[in-house]
Amino acid sequence: MILHDLFDWSNAGVAVLGLGLTFGAIWQATGAKSAAQEARKAVYQRNSAEELGSVRDLAFDLLNAIQTERYELALHIAGRFISICGSARERHRGFLGSEGGKLELAADLVSTVSQKMQPGADRTSLIADAQRVVKLVSCVKGVLDRGIEEEQQ
Question: The pTM is what?
């Protein structure tokens, strides 16, 4: 009988130990899952920042082309800007929040600029609109970069 009781107690001890190890594994898996989700979010934000950086570069290129009176190049850049800006705004809507409206305004301004680029167009007005586009896109990029920096701290 003593051997039987000892066997039951040892089985109970092994079961409790197994249950404890199971809870430990679940706790570790939960921590790994949250770490993976945070890493995924960080990568997504970095991709957003890089894409908005390329949109900002296009805005600078558009401004440069207008200032140097290369209107054919400016029209080409305007088309690319409108396409990429709209795509970036929709793709990164979650991170941009209300700042996404500034990208929409920038795309509308670029559309207006491209319509104004006709022979005899007011160069000062074109440059002013292109500068507003650069300002808007740079502002959105700055907000996104600030969010990334705050999360890294």
Answer: 0.64
DSSP letters for the chain = -HHHHHHHHHHHHHHHHHHHHHHHHHHHHHHHHHHHHHHHHHHHHHHHHHHHHHHHHHHHHHHHHHHTT-HHHHHHHHHHHHHHHHHHHHHTHHHHGGGHHHHHHHHHHHHHHHHH-STT--HHHHHHHHHHHHHHHHHHHHHHHHHHHHHH-
Amino acid at 17: L
Q: Which of 83, 85, 87, 81 is nearest to 61 (CA)?
A: 81
Average pLDDT over residues 85-97: 78
